[in-house]
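User: quick one - fold this with HDE bound?
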Amino acid sequence: MTDTPLFRPTADTQKSNEITDHLVTRGTGGELHQTPSGDTPRLTTAQGAPVADDQNSLTAGPRGPTLMEDFHFREKIFHFDHERIPERVVHARGYGAHGFLEVTEAIPELTSASLFQKKGTRVPAFVRFSTVAGNKGSADLARDVRGFAVKLYTQDGNWDIVGNNIPVFFIQDAMKFPDLIHAAKAAPDRGFPQAQTAHDNFWDFVSLMPEAMHMVMWTMSDRAIPRSFRFMEGFGVHTFRFVNAKGEGSFVKFHWKPKLGLQSVTWDEAVTIMGADPDFHRRDLWTAIRSGAFPEWELGVQVFDDAFADSLEYDVLDATKLIPEEQCPVRIIGRLVLDRVVDNFFAETEQVAFCTQNIVPGVDFTNDPLLQGRNFSYLDTQTKRLGGPNFTHIPINAPKCPFHHFQQDGHMAMHGPAGRANYEPNSWAQGGPRAAPKQGFHSLAEPMEGEKRRIRPEAFADHYSQARQFYRSQTAVEQAHIASALVFELSKVEVEEIRARVVSHLPNIDADLAQRVADGLGLDMPKAAKPAKAPVDLPLSDKLSILRNGPERFEGRKLGLLVTDGADAALVDALASAVSAAGGMLEVVAPRVGGVTLSDGTALPAQQKIDGGPSALYDAVAVIVSAEGAEMLASLHAAKTFAADAFAHAKFIGLSEEAGALFDAAGVTGRDAGMPTLASPADAKAFLKTCGALRFWDRVS
Ligand code: HDE
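Assistant: Sure. Structure tokens for the protein plus HDE:
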């Protein structure tokens, strides 16, 4: 062997090296630079020493051993080796964005919280949405609860409302949280299943914990497969306290209501989306914000006093219960707008540390035993996850108001106050911050007494009434989805006894639901579980349904337009204008991603090749093709699936006259009112109006 048989680029050869010539500078939107420009900063080590060669490690001779003294190599690899931090023990997969909360109604009579004193006050916000059970790399569309965690950077410190998109929880006491999560996540021996509750351990646990049944109804409903973070509600879940300047307290429950209405996908769509785009939700949020369609929620509060709480059939300290809006209206007091994506996913979304203990003067906890347990858990988990007690020094977690305290040192301390006084009281001049008895945080002076015992309150004993209320408040379509979800999940349970134990709870909720699930499983109806407290019929609540609270317009939604060469240009134009006028988004799907040539000779680029753009990704679809195009698509499996799925998922489908051949080939031979023909440009506008209803449910119900 000779000394130099292999080509190794050197600093000199870099100029002709294809890879280095296509540098993408950091911090841009991703535009490509052909060559580094004059103001491109020089590459340095973490210590700032300029680097001459980032391609080759230092060796003794071209083919010789790598030298230990190569500090640039060692530093680069060492840092890479340490890039990962522990993922969150729950809610590992999440996506965040910046925005603000604007107060639309001042409520000084209810709370002394600084932000609520004046209408129009704005505070910066950071929101992280998440799934619960899956690991960081799991798919967005898993059937799961979604986290809805909001950090508000107020003038009186950070206030974290760490909520979910479901207003109740599985368990009543934080003591059971590790059990719940162990049971829900992958089994410890085999390490699967990932990101789903469709397995024995989860159903074994909840079937032994009837208090979970209300939340089970919610997680088996379409709430657990939202179409987008932008179209889901958020809930603080627990009952909190507002405290006003006079020290008077009231109970409060927090709600986030999406301005664009509620929307979910179907389970069959979710299954497809998980393969076609596992990042569906994060991509949706990123794209919407970057395109200027800023997602918005109303902040609402249910405020009530002790007398009202005492009048309820259940306990407001029980997080497995909600208060229907019909019983206690939601008062809108603000709006949350997300208008900025993160600059760096790790620095912001991964390092953000929500803690339920982060509240501000004017807000207080209640004795909800779940909330009290959370107040310990979040602080503790951030310390582990972020490596020490100074995680509040990380910019995303630091308050944006002035802060002064005597905490010091520890790993990675970033704030090092000057001066001698690091204790209180002290008598040094300028001796440091002092407590502020007037403006400072005061707990509500609530009388407390009782025996020290481990006991569940009697008022927590009714586990079925609200589960029944939820199920019966759904539309027929939604009820069918709940039954199918239960059948799907329980069909993945291997032990029949566990399946039967789950089903034994259902007659206490609804006999018809129980029968449907038993039939779906091929199970003889088991004896109903004996309730700790007999369920009662509560008034139904429309607000619990998604379909009764959907949008009436297509704003914020996405139309998938399947086209071929020769498609009618005027029709395509009209449709694009109608989508844009409706505030929607259009994605072009074509046989090739290079796009198509329309009937007037213009080129239309595509965003998706048909195989990568199934109709499940869209809220409605249109198929505008030439006769030859329809014939060609009729022989493509992906195109036929696009058409057949759009139909099966009850989507609105706009068809050019020629497109019929594709649908016939896909086995969709009839045409219904959800499939209007787009014969002329005038039809496009009418079609978009129709799409506002989101689905043509008559087709499947
Ligand atoms: Fe959490 N939860 N949780 N949780 N939770 C965490 O904190 C915990 C509960 C929620 O985007 C952990 O930072 C206990 C209810 C969200 O970063 C951990 C109990 C609700 C997020 C933790 C609950 C939530 C978390 C894991 C039972 C809705 C994600 C990582 C008492 C109101 C926040 C972390 C983010 C995260 C503990 C129950 C919502 C371990 C002990 C109820 C949205 O601290």
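One thing worth noting: The first helix runs from residue 18 to 21.
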